[in-house]
Design goal:
6-stranded mixed β-sheet; elongated; 12 strands; 6-stranded parallel β-sheet; alpha/beta
Length: 327
């Protein structure tokens, strides 16, 4: 098996130059990089991650935390993140916080010395804690804005505004909003976007609810008791549970109540036939998050960059005009 020294000898450069050419090509000339890569391929040399870490001080590992793997929203997010990491020559470690700020902080502390940077989807830690993490190692948050920390945010609040206009235009005047998990940064912003876009409607906030099927099923009676003619759910998994339970109770959609949600599970390879939803660029969000993280790692920059990703309203058969008043 070829060694780093063998490549260096054949290429006529030092061993450290070989390591830089293979792990930090920006630090050598293009001619040197091309020569080293050609020799390494000819000799069948594979660069050792441990050796790279000794030379560059980097492990080539990136961590990406998500609240849950049970939420199908994160499947395309992770896919996009993984693809971006591989294109950058990095390995991605996915860790699960279970929606616990304490576990989230413990993961930050435990992995800080093992990874080159950290991405966090919908983190629940207090802003000062996230700012402190960003001072210690590159950090990018997904769907959370913190001063001084790079972020990628899917603009679902404006999408909820579009849903509000859509429902008000159909004639709804009482709308229920099934809120997200407690402590969610996006949840109050989505609710505000819905209320501001439909000022002539009464928007009743129900919850908080975790983005789970069982929680949606549990929310059905609260929706019925509210007297609202339309419902906007924080997530598709929440809406699926609600739809299932209301069907069992004999409530029809959209004849009795219109249903809509803040994300579309089609991005995760799942479908909800004819449900009005926001199409969210989940895979792109994962990719952009890791791309920003790789930039911070490779440049050593501490400058906070922010990217906002647009959503698209897809109106379908689950929303219609409200039922006529009885009597």
């Amino acid at each position: 098996m070829a060694r780093l020294e063998d490549v260096a000898r054949e290429a006529g450069v030092s061993a450290s130059t070989v390591s830089r050419a293979l792990s930090r090509p920006d630090m050598v000339s293009e001619a040197t990089r091309s020569r080293v890569v050609a020799v390494a391929e000819a000799l069948g040399y594979r660069h050792n991650a441990a050796a790279r870490a000794l030379v560059t001080g980097r492990t080539g590992l990136l961590a990406f935390s998500v609240p849950s793997l049970a939420n199908p929203f994160y499947a395309p997010v992770i896919a996009g993140a993984q693809e971006a990491a591989e294109e950058a020559g990095c390995e991605l470690i996915v860790v699960v916080t279970n929606g616990s700020p304490a576990r989230e902080q413990a993961l930050f502390d435990r992995l800080a010395e093992r990874v080159d940077g950290f991405a966090a989807a919908a983190p629940l830690s207090l802003s000062p804690l996230l700012t402190d993490v960003a001072r210690r190692l590159p950090l990018v948050t997904l769907n959370r804005r913190v001063r001084g920390v790079s972020s990628v945010v899917i603009d679902t609040p404006s999408g909820l505004g579009e849903l509000g206009v859509h429902l008000a235009g159909l004639g709804h005047r009482r709308i229920a909003y099934l809120g997200g998990p407690e402590g969610s940064w996006l949840d109050p912003r989505r609710l505000r976007g819905l209320r501001e876009a439909a000022p002539d409607c009464e928007v009743r906030a129900l919850g908080p609810y975790p983005p789970e099927f069982e929680a949606g099923s549990r929310a059905a009676q609260a929706v019925i008791d509210s007297g609202c003619t339309a419902v906007v759910a924080y997530s598709s998994t929440l809406l699926l549970g609600l739809l299932h339970r209301m069907t069992m109770l004999g409530v029809t959609t959209p004849q009795d109540v219109s249903l809509a949600c803040a994300d579309d599970l089609s991005a995760a390879g799942l479908t909800m036939p004819d449900v009005t939803a926001l199409h969210v660029p989940a895979e792109e969000a994962g990719r952009r998050t890791v791309e920003r993280l790789v930039h911070l790692v490779s440049t050593g920059s501490h400058e906070a960059g922010h990217r906002l990703l647009r959503v698209e309203l897809r109106a379908r058969a689950s929303t219609g005009r409200p039922p006529a008043p009885r009597g």
